[in-house]
Amino acid sequence: MELFYRPGKAVLGDVIPFYDNGKFKPFFLKNTRGSAGHEDGWHMLTTQDHLHFQEHPTHIQGGTGSVIKVDGVYHMFYCTFKDNPRRQFVRHAVSKDLDSWEILDEVLPPDGEIYDLSEWRDPFVFWNEEAEEWWMLLATSVIGKTERRACVGLCASKELNLSAWEYRQPLYAPMAAAGACECPDLFKMGDWYYLVFSNYCDRFTTMYRMSKSLNGPWITPEQDTFDSCAYYAAKTGTDGKDRYIYGWNPTKELPKKMFNPANRISQDVCAWDWGGNMVVHKVLQNPDGTLRVAPEPHVDTALGHKTSLKVEPLLGSWQPTGQGGILSSPTGFGGVLMEQVPRQCKLEATLKFKPGTRQFGIALQVDENYDTGYYLVLDPARNRLEYVSGIRFWGEDGEGGKMFPYAVEMERPLRLEAGEEYKLKVFVEGTVLVVYINDDIAMNARMYDYQDRRFGLFAIDGEVKAEALELFTL
Predict the structure, then answer these.
(1) Is 44 helix (H, G, I), strand (E, B) or coil?
(2) What's the confidence (pLDDT) of residue 394?
(3) Potential cystine with 375: which of 115, 388, 465, 467 (Cβ 3.0-4.6 Å)?
(4) Quick one: three-class SS letters along 316-381?
């Protein structure tokens, strides 16, 4: 059982969600990173619970796309690439059983008039009932005067065999970022259409826009992301009842010439790689039409052995209150230590803070001195959840130390009000960390440098009440 799937001797890249005959069958881009005897390219997973998987190669080599079923025939649209000069093309393959694929001769290049020849990938094909034609969304950029030309392109076809595509003006072209609006995805929930895409040049995250019409205008909600920058290329899929979003939590494992030197003292400082583990969130709709995410229900209940956490006071005042307690430290840092962090686990806690509290939260993989480790910081003054890995560079020959040059490593917006309850679900699987708060926001992260150490609870300049402190394992 895997909470966050990763293929053996490889990483999981862009996921192409698909549901068929009562089973989830998400495709994904597999990268073996040179592992001998293993095949890169499109692979398919079969699962009923997003916990137990069977993997099937398709023998299709190419980039992200989409899979649909029409009159008993499966259609795969994907992209291929050429260099010198850089060029990208859409390809089409068909299958009757999802095992054997026939690559058709059709090749759809960018037109060079509306769309840039070097950015043309990630086709997403769906039937537009209103227009009674097939639409294909693409990660591309329009031809323009600046590098800020990333857009979601559009082609259309009335052909039943999904061929003879007509180039249209972009579905969405904000002219705000370079590159392309990658891995576009579109779905309708209630009265709203949602356009999902990722960008690596501007914010490095997966975003969404919403509209009451496919013709726009596409509204940017106040909180327009699903997760942190450690969750990328996410696309959604449905079983006809619930909708899920599939993204990847990237590794930090590959050497990089300029950023990850061989003699580095920390793996946590390394740059994000392409590909890693699959993380699936359940997508929920708020009354105003905006979206939020919660744990995938099977993953949420997978770990059935429950342990009440024992608390060891360290700094500040700790007052036990049944299955929890009150941690008080009015003028500084207060912290307690709890159980060791298992390789695969879920920590649950309901936290409530008093007015004036500066910060509070959960620590992971901390040592007995509360020195090094990882911190999930709830910051009321800035209304956000922060992830801080406590990265520290040590100088040589008495030069002193330098912290890594950022104030906040990762963050998620979270409105924090004194006296309100905030229910945290903290999932750990190896180096993967996934956090949910109030079935509202999610945050992915990685923890490389420290393992087999302890959980903690902390408060700074204030007081936090922790209830329902429970640890779930297999």
Answers:
(1) strand
(2) 53
(3) 388
(4) CEEEECCCCEEEEEEEEEEEEEEEECCCEEEEEEEEEECCCCCEEEEEEEECCCCCCCEEEEEECC
Pull the structure tokens for residue 105: 């001769």
Nearest Cα neighbor of 141 from 171, 168, 120 is 120
382: left (phi over 0), alpha (psi -120 to 50) or beta: alpha
CA distances (Å), 92 to each of 55, 79, 100, 104, 312, in order?
Answer: 22, 9, 14, 6, 60
Peptide bond into 405 cis (omega under 30): no
Pairing of strands 19-20, 11-16: unpaired
User: 């079983």: which residue's tokens?
Assistant: 239
- Among the listed residues 216, 234, 276, the one whose alpha carbon sits nearest the alpha carbon of residue 122: 234
Q: What is the pTM of this model?
A: 0.96
Task: Calculate the dihedral angle through the C-alpha atoms of 416, 204, 405, 445, rounding to the nearest 10 degrees.
Answer: 60
Mean pLDDT in consecutive groups of 10 residues from the start of the chain, 474 residues: 96 98 97 86 98 97 98 97 95 97 96 96 97 97 92 95 95 93 97 97 92 97 97 98 98 82 78 96 98 98 93 96 95 96 98 98 94 94 92 54 65 97 98 97 96 97 97 96
Output 18-26 pairs: Cβ under 8 A, ≥24 positions apart: 18/44, 18/67, 18/237, 19/237, 19/238, 19/239, 19/240, 20/69, 20/98, 22/48, 23/47, 23/48, 24/48, 24/50, 24/237, 24/239, 25/98, 26/237, 26/246, 26/278
3-state secondary structure of 296: coil
- Dihedral pair phi/psi, residue 193, rounded to 5°: -95, 145
Do 80 and 100 contact (CB within 8 A), yes or no?
Answer: no
Placement of tokens 């999902």 in the chain: 196
Which amino acid would we find at residue 145?
K
CA–CA separation, 242 and 187 (whole Å) = 12
Which structure tokens are listed for 250? 């990237």
